[in-house]
Structures are given as structure tokens and as C-alpha cells.
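Form P-L/3: holo structure prediction, ligand guanosine-5'-triphosphate.
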Amino acid sequence: MSNIRMRDEELIEGMKNRDRKVLAKVLSLCENSPERANFLLSKLEKKLSHLIGITGSPGVGKSTLTSSILDELKNKNVGVVVVDPSSPFTHGALLGDRIRMQSHATSRNVFIRSFASRGALGGLAPSIFEACDAFEAFGMDDVIIETVGVGQSEVDIRNVADTVVVVLSPDGGDEVQMMKAGLMEIADVFVINKADNPRAQILKSRLNAVLTMGKKEIPIFLTNALTREGVKEFVNALDERFQKMKENETLAKRRRQKLFHHVKASLRRELDDLIDKSEVKGLVMNKDFLELKSLFVRELCEKYK
Ligand SMILES: Nc1nc2c(ncn2[C@@H]2O[C@H](COP(=O)(O)OP(=O)(O)OP(=O)(O)O)[C@@H](O)[C@H]2O)c(=O)[nH]1
Ligand SMILES: [Mg+2]
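OUTPUT (holo model):
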């Protein structure tokens, strides 16, 4: 693994020079050839970006909120990953995402990339880890990851982001039911979007009542993503939270957890590839269970000797 191919050198140089075309290529590598991306990215210094996960049910306003966050973060370099849901009922909204975010797409300091999701309800693809590394290597201040659904996939936003923002909206039917179903455990911050809806206040008091039963203190923000009302306050709070996380042990702890899950996802992926390839090559023929198992383990050990 020690030789750097010429092409890799070019990519590394391009990343150092903050060449957006090269970033696009590296992000494609993250998706299609993640182990090569991991290798390349290990050669680059990384900025400690604030990795912000934005999650919540379809249609609560995650993309609109992301757009208004970008408006507030004008002086910062920001990477955005929109997880492309494979679920058919969100396809219309996805087109909307593109149109809404287009105003930012041409901005020099914002880079938006959509990623295919793996879970049926649009969880996170394992290569999200590499994508975050790529944005950090590019020197982004913040990275926003928009994803639909919680706990639907093998890779959870909680294991990727430094801060998980759970967005709720008053027009979603049984939001409080959803909170009980696991959102409370993963939320670091709640946003009740569509605050222009009078029921937003009711949702806030109900959420407050649920939260008082929990152990940790989770702030709630009310926003109108369309008019940007409440967004500045929310963005400032995110910034303050990140500064605090850096000062105390929380960020280091989250990053250790992220690293663990990154390695796990990467090993799983490699083992899967190895097993699939062995089958194609016919290596699985005439071997019994233990022989095959040790063959795969040996192959993987050989690679990392
Ligand atoms: N009234 C009101 N409408 C909003 C607000 N924020 C977003 N919307 C609208 O809600 C709809 C859904 O917004 P999106 O930003 O696409 O929601 P999303 O959560 O990204 O949706 P998915 O990506 O499909 O999960 C759009 O029609 C938005 O214009 C808000 O604060 N108030
Ligand atoms: Mg969206």
C-alpha cells in the first residue's frame, strides 16, 4: 500500500490547492472506491470541521433549513451532503432540494453533493465517513449532512455527526410518538420548523414535557426556514456548542466513536468484496466452512501486514 500512484499525487495536490473539481472527483471516489479514497485522504491534513447532521421525517423542512443555514454562514466554507433517498415518495421533494439549494451551489465557499442512500427509507451510506474526511481535508469549517429517517440503516447519523439536529414540524401527525421511538436518544438539538404554524407552540410544550423525563438537557429552537426567522439564533447556538465540545471531552469522545464505526464499516465492506470476488473466481469451490472462513481472514490479514 506504500506506493502513491501519479494520479493519486495529482488528487492530493489538487485537494491541497482547494481545487473544487478535484474535490468532486475525490467525493466520487468516496462513493465508488472508498478504500482508495481512504488511502488518499490519509495523506492529507484535515481541518476539524463541525459535522452537523440534520435529520427528521420527510417534508419537515430539512433542506429549506439547510439553505437558510447556508445564508447565515456566508463567511464560512461549508460542505453539504444531501443523502439521496431511494424511497419513491421523496423523489419530488428531492427535485425541490436541488432547486432551493441551487442559489448556493455556485457560491465559491459552499460545496453541495448528493449521496445515494442504502436503507429503504434513506439512511446513510457507509461511505459518508469518507465524504466527511474529504470535506475536512478540503478545509471546510462546517459540514452539513441531511438525511431522512432514524435508525433505518446500518450507519446511524449519531455515529457520524458531532451534533445531531432533529427537525420536527407541527404538520407531521404523530411527532411525539416518533420522539419516543428513538429520536430523543440521538438528538443533541431539536428544531421545530414551520414556526409560522400556530401549532408549533403546542408541539414545543409537548416536546418539553417529554424532554423533562429524559436525563440530558436538549435545547429546542423554533424556526421558520422560509423567512429565516429563528435561524440565526440556532446557528449561533450550534457554533457555541462546537466550541464547548472542543474545550471539554465531548468532541474527542464523539470522534473516537466515529472512528470506530468508520473502521467497522470499512472492514465490513472489504470483507464483503473479498467474499464476493472469491465466489466469482470460484475460490469457494470444494472448501468446507472453516477452510473458507480462514481463507478470508488470512486474505484480509495479508493486506494489512
Ligand atoms: N410554512 C412553512 N413551510 C416550510 C418551512 N420550511 C419548509 N417549508 C416547506 O415544506 C416543504 C418541505 O420542505 P423541504 O425542505 O423539502 O423538507 P425536507 O425535510 O428536506 O424533505 P425531504 O428531503 O423530502 O425529507 C416545502 O414545500 C417547503 O417550502 C417553514 O418554516 N414554514
Ligand atoms: Mg430534503
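COMMENT: The chain has three domains: 1-44, 46-247, 259-303.
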